[in-house]
Amino acid sequence: DIQMTQSPSTLSASVGDRVTITCRASQSISSALAWYQQKPGKAPNLLIYQASSLESGVPSRFSGSGSGTEFTLTISSLQPSDFATYYCQQYYSMATFGQGTKVEIK
Amino acid sequence: EVQLVESGGGLVQPGRSLRLSCTVSGFTIGDYGMSWVRQAPGKGLEWVGFIRSNAYGGTTEYAASVKGRFTISRDDSKSIAYVQMNSLKTEDTAVYYCSRWQQPAQYFHHWGQGALVTVSS
Fold it and tell me: What is the CB neighbour count within 10 angstroms for residue B5?
């Protein structure tokens, strides 16, 4: 099974900060990686797929990069609505989620 | 508009069974892969399994944690996907989400609102 490891687990940041979250796969997954945002009590919301493709309707301050085993999600200028938990997910073989990164207000 | 609505959640004793339904609208369910993802209270997301679209044979795959106990199926005439959960354990307590994906790439554009399953005596 492919394991996904996100870092950090928690991130404290301020509005306007540039934020980067990392996701590492236990083996190469090519570009088969998605990123989701989840707010309390809600279903996840797709942000990025195929490692770097922005889902329709998602603000351009979100971007993704990477391939193989190392991936990043970047928020260029953190907005109040961005305080949430973020998950990566590989879909190269079945599906596996990372453990999540909670972005908190500093 | 694409919509997915889960139902059937509730409190169930360990060892018993429960079936969740995911009623969809706005698309033809057989044209898409359908997955179940769960989230234990205060925890992260865990993939449970999926059923492939009809074009890909409608076959199923499961996570190791539920294989042999859970069965995913679909009724195309009713536009409903199911997960039959047998021999439930306390660790199966979670919110269960159904989600839609476009073959062959299993990432999820659309999700239901979730159904809470509590396994407790």
Answer: 14
Encoded tokens for B91: 């660790």
CA distances B5 to B73, B84, B90, B110, Å, are: 16, 16, 24, 11
CB pairs below 8 Å between A and B: how many? 51
* Cβ contact, residue pair A43, B113, below 8 Å: yes
- pLDDT, tens digit, 9 for 90 and up, residues B73-106: 999 999 999 999 999 999 999 999 999 998 888 9
Q: Please report the sign of the dihedral spanned by the C-alpha atoms of residue A80, residue B96, residue A30, residue A70.
A: positive
pLDDT tens track for B3-39: 999 999 999 999 999 999 999 999 999 999 999 999 9
Return the residue of B nearest to A40 by Cα: B42
Q: What are the chain A neighbours of B63 within 8 Å (beta carbons)?
A: 94
Q: Which residues in chain A are closer than 8 Å to B2, comparing Cβ atoms?
A: none
